[in-house]
Amino acid sequence: MNPEPSPTLTIVIPVYNAEATIGRLVRALLADPPLPGTDIVLVNDGSRDRSHEVCLECCEAFPGRVTYLRLARNFGEHNAVMAGLRQSGGDWVVVMDDDFQNPPGEIARIVDTARDGGYDVVYTAFREKRHGRLRNLGSAFNDKVATMLLDKPPRLYLSSFKCVSRFLVDRIVEYTGPAPYVDGLILRATGNIGQVEVEHRDREAGRSGYTLWKLVRLWLTMFVNFSVAPLRLSAFLGLGLGAFGLLMAVWSLAEKVFGVSVPSGWTMLYITIIIFSGVQLVMLGLLGEYVGRSLMEINRTPQAVVREIHGGDGRPPREVRP
Fold first, then answer.
1. Which end of the chain is more exposed for a tag (fewer CB within 10 A), N or C?
2. Taking every annotated instance into account, which residue ranges of this chain make up the domain Glycosyltransferase 2-like (predicted)?
């Protein structure tokens, strides 16, 4: 009886302005690989430093074990991860950051947890977060929104450091829209989720690529792409404001009939107009966001465009569009 073949592992790393860390990270991962059949997919998401040259050096140093995708511009972290997932070929796929905050030595334990528990995905939870204030604030908000809109288990932390099964990867990459949210796609596809606690290190070089605008874009994607709850909220808000308007009309009538004193004059009128106009503009903006994203789908806006591919086994990445 032939022994069962050892599982293979692909490590997907989105790269953005990481010239100081990505070379050392690749060497650390392949010097002591978590599994015998381990390969790495680097996805350069429009870096402005020497990350391109460093990634090419990694391909030359580890032929057949490092695949390098260079995107045509900066598409965003989740788009870069999707490009990497499409290129991956391992039985298990680990997604991690490029800055050494995710310890390479923890990968074997994460993969073992996924295999032994039969999970489709295993997320990592950090004993102590080492992110900056802005990213910690964004993560806390994301956690609340994902719990409300995506039916995320309340105690599950949606870390960027995770292990995903081949079954789930194949389901995730079926999504071809221009604004992916990887964790939303995972939660939409499976409830078979594990979690393991790991160390979180300080960032070794550079600074986080997260900005307030990128966090806002991510929140919009969570709101608009994966739930109709904002539309329902708008409907209920409209009903509430309609009821408020009716109440004000009754109150005004009561003043005339029963002599009840109510605020009057230009100030009250201005306040009412501003409140109603603000709410209407928010609703219109929300509807415009849904319509705009639908237009992007119809116009076949690309999820990512791969300018170059180097290394690996020479196979081209799977098409982003069907």
1. N
2. 10-133
